Amino acid sequence: MDNVLDTESIRQQLEDEAKKLQESITQKLDGNNEGRNPDRSDLAQAYATRERSTALLAIERERLEQVQNALQRLDDGTYGYCMSCGENISPERLEILPHATLCVNCQANRE
To answer: Of 72, 87, 93, 94, whose CB has the highest number of CB atoms within 10 Å?
Structure first.
């Protein structure tokens, strides 16, 4: 595997992911306006569905923030450096997880 970081490819991947996440978030928010008054027999199911949707929305919002932060790091020249130790994050890790902020060692220590 090539050890050189292809920032243009990573930028495109991050921008595509940000767009996909934003569309999904918008769709979920638009869908939350429907069916706000379920009848009594469907209330428990509606509540469970709403809780699940809220949890998924929070996960997508967090992921979008991570992707946007990675794009900002690309712009300001700090992309690819571990936010804990300052060392380079391996290109292989960034290829798999382009919004990674920690090198493998720091991530392992955190877990």
So the answer is: 94
Burial class (CB in 10 A: 0-12, 13-18, 19+), 4: exposed
- Please give the helix or strand (H or E) that residue 97 lies within, else none: none
* pLDDT (0 to 100) of residue 6: 85
Q: Model-level pTM greater than 0.85? A: no
Mean pLDDT throughout 85-100?
A: 94
Question: Nearest 5°: CA angle at 83, between 77 and 85?
Answer: 115
* Alpha-carbon gap, residue 11 to 76, rounded angstroms: 13
Please, are residues 68 and 78 in contact by the beta-carbon 8 Å criterion?
no
